[in-house]
Amino acid sequence: MTSPSPTLTARDMPRRAGSSPVSTLAPRAACPATASTTRRARRRGLAWVAGSFLLCPCHLPLTLAVLASVLGGTALGAALHHAPLLAAAPITAVWAAGTWRGVRLVRASVHA
Q1: Across residues 1-15, what is the average pLDDT?
Q2: What CA–CA distance (Å, rounded) separates 57 from 92?
Q3: What DSSP character marks residue 13?
Q4: Is 8 part of any domain?
Q5: What totals of helices (H) and strands (E) does the chain contain, helices first?
Q6: pLDDT, tens digit, 9 for 90 and up, residues 39-92
Q7: Cα 77 from Cα 66, distance rounded (Å)
Q8: Which terminal Cβ of the chain has fewer Cβ within 10 Å, N or C?
Q9: Which domain holds residue 68?
């Protein structure tokens, strides 16, 4: 019959001078869900970038035309017609924020 393996206690662990016990145990293996999580984060990042592409400032004339046709006959449509820069600034800000978020998600998935 074999004896049970001894358990490590804080006293049994090696110490550096003036510090707490240092673990000599092997690091934990990566969680199997990590690969799917990084793939999901990468896909979400690419979706953010693709969605932001639709609001890109180079597409601003098309975006403003679509907004004007959708909002035609409303007070917001009239305001858009007379002051397109009031719509262009938030559209550009949303594009920049969406692109930034997408790039962050893609980079995080690459570095994970």
Answers
A1: 58
A2: 6
A3: S
A4: no
A5: 4, 0
A6: 888 999 999 999 998 888 888 888 888 888 898 899 988 888 888 888 889 989
A7: 11
A8: N
A9: 56-111
For 98-112, b/e burial (b = at least 16 CB within 10 A) is bbebbeebbeebeee
95 CB-contact burial (10 Å; exposed 0-12 / middle 13-18 / buried 19+): buried
Q: Classify residue 90: in a domain, yes or no.
A: yes
Q: For residue 31, what are its two tokens?
A: 């969680």
Eight-state DSSP code of residue 57: G
Whether residue 29 is contained in a domain is answered as no
43 assigned to some structural domain: no
Tell me the two tokens of residue 28.
Answer: 């934990």
Q: Number of structural domains, the chain?
A: 1
Band of the pLDDT at 102, cuts 50, 70, 90? very high
- State the greatest distance between any 2 C-alpha atoms of the chain, in Å, as a whole number: 91
- Please state, as a whole number, how many other Cβ atoms lie within 10 Å of the Cβ of residue 44: 15
> Using an 8 Å Cβ cutoff, are 48 and 102 in contact?
yes
CA 58 – CA 53 distance, rounded (Å): 9
